[in-house]
Amino acid sequence: MSNLYFTEDHEWLRVEGDKAYVGITDFAQEQLGDIVYVELPEEDDEVAAGDSVGVVESVKSASDVLAPASGRVVEVNEDLEDSPELINEDAMGNWIVALELSDKEELSALMDEEDYKAFLGEEA
Questions:
Q1: Residue 109 counted as domain residue
Q2: Does 65 fall in a domain?
Q3: Percentage helix, strand, coil, to 5, in the chain?
Q4: Residue 122: its pLDDT value, please?
Q5: How far is Cα 36 from Cα 43, in angstroms, rounded to an integer?
């Protein structure tokens, strides 16, 4: 099974051990356009699946980043505070927040890469 998951809201989640890194997909950053600001959560925040874990602002709009699964914020990507455009350069390589997952069973509700590509095909 892959360690990469996707939501219908265009977030990705990559599981590495007990940590899950969360970011927005390439599709999402293309829709937003040039990203000018990323609002990060506080470390130790407890979040439930679907809660906002940050905001990505572009020249076009602002969009909440939703937690794909429940957990505790254990790390934020501070590089994005000074260089939010990193998400435009490599959306899948620049995570926004790292969570310590509280219930790995929630991952079964997310899409794998193949399902997400099919979902994009329907949405495009």
A1: no
A2: yes
A3: 25, 35, 35
A4: 81
A5: 22
